Structure of Membrane-associated protein:
Amino acid sequence: MATPPHLASQLAVNVLDAHSLLAAFGVFGVGVVLFAETGLLIGFFLPGDSLLFTAGLLCTGAADRGLHLSLGPLLVAAALGALAGSQCGFLIGRKAGGALLARTRSAKLREGAQRAEELLDRYGHAKAIVLARFVPVVRTVLNPMAGALGVPARTFTLWQVIGGLVWSLGLTLGGYALGSSIPNVDKYLLPVIALIVLVSLIPLAAEVLRSRRAAKETP
């Protein structure tokens, strides 16, 4: 029995490629991927940054790849996926403690957990929760780490909502703005996505530099 074309395309989706995910699942896929990346430890490898930017770009029709998304539903799906995923990760951490991270065999997850704990210790809950959104892997593990370390639920919810909206809507609208202003931007998609990922790390880098300068100035 032959597999229907639309089902075959979904089965053949490359979860590491933003365009493949969008072509297979559209706006709905954005919400699901962001939920998995920010809420489930198994989603640490998913391409959240490039997915958001590429999805925003495809809303303009600038990318000539036979795929066009609607900006309004995309923004809603991105925000809901990012916020619900983060809150789910926090609840998992609160229920399971650090057991899940302690048993993982993934070196990336262990490294991310260490960096997440360092962020919480160095910058406090509010800054760490917001900054973690812009760091791949760390944004996956900080949420359960916050739950396991006893960060107050009200504090976590407030700052994960702020950080989640800035990250998800900011990258999506960045892709939309670029696609609207630069003709044939699709030709430069890969280097542009790489640039966006680097730019997304600026808040963390700026905070690290500020902290180091403050430490040097302190007797």
